[in-house]
Amino acid sequence: MSDTPSERTKITDGMSEEELNARHAEKMKKKKAARDKILATKTIEKGLLIVHTGKGKGKSTAAFGLVFRALGNGMKVGVVQFVKGKWETGERKILEHFPEQVTMTAMGDGFTWETQDRQRDITAAKAAWERAKAMIMDEEHQMVLLDEMNIVLRYDYLDIGDVVAFLKEKPANKHVIVTGRNAKDELIELADLVTEMEMVKHPFRAGVKAQKGIEF
């Protein structure tokens, strides 16, 4: 059982810096040994299905962080943006500098409340999904980001059953990332890694508009 903060204070009270350093080193040595023992049991290597969801900011931002990490490791990445077709985003401008590593497709016409045309949105979503399926199944891309796909699934522009059935059959070594709030339960159940972004504060509520370098 680990010491409580008050117990730790009593133990270390009156210790010299040398004694504190020695105690800390011993504690970290034990922690490293325990962690190494755990890591030794993790032997599986596979392509992951990753979902970033929740009402908080940062879902796409975190996903593009994975994209940049993959690029740094020499991987080839496919990106399909489902609902940000009209946005000139900073990440898109940066990724254009890596044409040999990145295949980027923005197939949406903006957010659904901007188009106000359900059939047009459904057509765009289906076209984006077909493009995404091709990249997921090919041997060229090692990671595929489906940015804001959860939004089109939320509005049932794509059938969640069809999407889940397809993702179950993805190549074993292919990483697929899906972003957007309100992820469907079926997708969460299938995913290997799910992160829910929780909003604590947001400047939009204080009247601050979307800003370059932060939102796009």
Explain what this protein looks like in three dimensions:
This protein has helices spanning 5-12, 17-39, 59-72, 90-95, 112-115, 118-137, 149-154, 160-168, 185-190, and strands spanning 49-53, 77-81, 102-106, 143-147, 175-179, 193-196. With 216 residues, it is of the alpha/beta class. The protein has two domains: 16-45; 49-206, Rossmann fold (3-Layer(aba) Sandwich). Required for both de novo synthesis of the corrin ring for the assimilation of exogenous corrinoids. Participates in the adenosylation of a variety of incomplete and complete corrinoids. Keywords: ATP-binding, Cobalamin biosynthesis, Cytoplasm, Nucleotide-binding, Porphyrin biosynthesis, Transferase. It is found in: Cytoplasm.
Number of helices: 9
Principal-axes shape call: globular
| Rg on CA atoms, Å | 22 Å
What is the spatial order of strands in the main beta sheet?
Answer: 3-2-4-5-1-6
The CATH superfamily title of the largest domain: P-loop containing nucleotide triphosphate hydrolases
- By secondary-structure content and strand pairing, the structural class works out as alpha/beta
> Span from first to last CA?
47 Å
Whole-number total of structural domains: 2
Helix content: 40-55%
CATH topology label of the largest domain: Rossmann fold
Strand content: 5-15%
CATH class division of the largest domain:
Alpha Beta
The total of beta strands comes to: 6
Order of helices and strands: HHEHEHEHHEHHEHE
User: What can be said about the biggest beta sheet?
Assistant: 6 strands, parallel
Low-confidence stretches: none
